[in-house]
């Protein structure tokens, strides 16, 4: 049964899904899959290029199709989704039908600091924005997406989520 467990991380861009996901996968000895990387590999294109050349609508269709592939074909993994993945095409229901969803609920301040220190300019949603615009965009995104993230089965609040805490909560889902 443990082999069949699918853990799906959701949350805002910059909430640490990939970093936390890798640590979690390692401690469980599970495969780690990053949906953005899976999509880029499958399509042979960077997400940035897809946004620029084909637009967000096409990206969302590709994202949903990759999500379906991963959830249906691969067993026993930790999946890090893109920030928008649960919020389009009924994807949150799909995620909850297939595994244990976990929302990394990180403060906007931390997200802002990470994104501006890191590579916000490289992320299509924030491209060309200055600091004030990024702040507004983040508030806007969270207010429209929070309702999807809140449907996750487990919510981990705080800037530095603990794998131990999550594993303890997950015992309810492992039989
Ligand atoms: C997006 C987040 C990105 C990526 C794409 C769109 C979003 O992933 O999927 O640029 O809509 O929030 P991260 O959450 O890993 O940055």
Description:
This protein has 175 residues and is of the alpha/beta class. It has a single domain, classed as Rossmann fold (3-Layer(aba) Sandwich), CATH 3.40.50. It is built from 8 helices and 5 strands. Strands 2-3-1-4-5 form a 5-stranded parallel β-sheet, sandwiched between helices. The radius of gyration is 16 Å and the shape is globular.
Question: In terms of topology, how is this protein built?
Answer:
Layout: E1 6-10, H1 17-28, E2 31-34, H2 35-43, H3 47-54, H4 56-73, E3 77-80, H5 91-98, E4 100-105, H6 108-117, H7 131-149, E5 154-157, H8 163-170
Parallel strand pairs: 1-3, 1-4, 2-3, 4-5
Bound molecules: shikimate-3-phosphate.
Shikimate-3-phosphate binds next to loops.
Q: Can you tell me the residue ranges where pLDDT is under 50 for at least 5 consecutive residues?
A: none
* Name of the CATH class: Alpha Beta
Number of discrete domains: 1
* DSSP summary: helix tally: 8
Query: What is the alpha-carbon Rg in Å?
Result: 16 Å
CATH 4th-level superfamily: P-loop containing nucleotide triphosphate hydrolases
Profile the largest sheet.
5 strands, parallel
Bound molecules: shikimate-3-phosphate
Through-space gap between termini: 7 Å
Q: Helix and strand succession?
A: EHEHHHEHEHHEH
Number of strands: 5
- Main structural class: alpha/beta
Helix percent band: 40-55%
